[in-house]
Amino acid sequence: MTLAACLSLGLASPAGALAGGSPARAGDRLTRATVFITSLTPSGRDRAEVGNCTGVLIERDLVLTAGHCLSDMGGPSLVVAQFFDSSNRIVRTVQVASGALHPDYAGRASAEDPKPEMLGADLAILKLADPAPADRRPIALASRPLDAAKRSSVLLGAGLRVPADEGSAGQLRIARVDAEVVTDGPTAVALGVAGGSICRGDSGGPVASSAGVWGVVIAIVRKKSLCNSTVFMAVLDPRSRGFRTMLSRAKRSN
């Protein structure tokens, strides 16, 4: 199936959570580097909107996630990164100080105007106000992401485990994903089928093979249901101009 054909089915807003899959492996390096991102944005008198995404620690104070997770935060927001314990429950919280979007990201795509290059640039790096806990180590990005994407891969997410249950988020889960890169260039996109439904809260979750983290979950393909196992992933190219610019801006941001 072509990318355009997939998009004609409808492109969900943010990608979501693993309703299914299995609990992430306790003690695994990728598990310990994955974080749950929560934002609180005032939306009116005595009201606020809560948003969730997943991300991965790439430096002691930098978290990689999906671009729309950052751009959706309208106005002043309190944003935190939450770390998991050996039972995959949230145990530590660090405030996010700032962030930087990929320079080629220009907002979400739509079924009517897919813009594949926009999908692949759906990336952001968040800068933590304080370094991650001492027992957490940044995860390495794959040096050859297109080759890494051809290997057996998994994705992690901490959103809703039960699609209709708002209280089921916040537990890290893992699922296998069969992926195929469907566009090329510095903002390539992969399409895959995960071993669990992706619903909400999993945008920005890392996708990795034995060669390292090669992708980030950015969107799902859906027709009627709000959940689906068919998922789009931005393929990371840490040597590309856009990624290096985003990284530099995140490091300089306050």
Question: Can you offer a commentary on this structure?
Answer:
By secondary structure, the protein is mainly β. The protein has one domain (22-252): Thrombin, subunit H (Beta Barrel). 14% of the residues lie in helices and 40% in strands. The protein has six helices and 14 strands. It has helices at 3-7, 29-33, 67-71, 116-120, 145-148, 241-252, and strands at residues 18-20, 22-23, 34-44, 47-59, 62-65, 78-84, 90-101, 124-128, 153-157, 173-181, 189-198, 206-209, 212-220, 228-235. It has a six-stranded antiparallel barrel. A six-stranded antiparallel barrel has the order 3-4-5-8-7-6. The longest helix is centred in the last third of the chain and has 12 residues, at 241-252. It is globular. The model is unreliable at 1-19 (pLDDT under 50). Residues 18-254 form the Peptidase S1 domain. Residues 1-19 form the signal peptide.
Alpha-beta content class: mainly beta
The H-and-E topology, N to C, reads as HEEHEEEHEEHEHEEEEEEH
Strand line-up of the largest beta sheet:
9-10-11-14-13-12
- Reported CATH architecture: Beta Barrel
Classify the fold: give the CATH topology. Answer: Thrombin, subunit H
**Percentage of β-strand residues:** 35-45%
Number of helices: 6
Task: Give the beta-strand count.
Answer: 14
Give the CATH class.
Mainly Beta
Give helix % range.
10-25%
Number of domains: 1
Q: Give the integer mean of the pLDDT values.
A: 79
Radius of gyration: 16 Å
Largest sheet: 6 strands, antiparallel, barrel
Give the low-pLDDT segments: 1-19
Map the helices and strands.
Elements: H1 3-7, E1 18-20, E2 22-23, H2 29-33, E3 34-44, E4 47-59, E5 62-65, H3 67-71, E6 78-84, E7 90-101, H4 116-120, E8 124-128, H5 145-148, E9 153-157, E10 173-181, E11 189-198, E12 206-209, E13 212-220, E14 228-235, H6 241-252
Antiparallel strand pairs: 1-11, 2-10, 3-4, 3-6, 4-5, 5-8, 6-7, 7-8, 9-10, 9-12, 10-11, 11-14, 12-13, 13-14
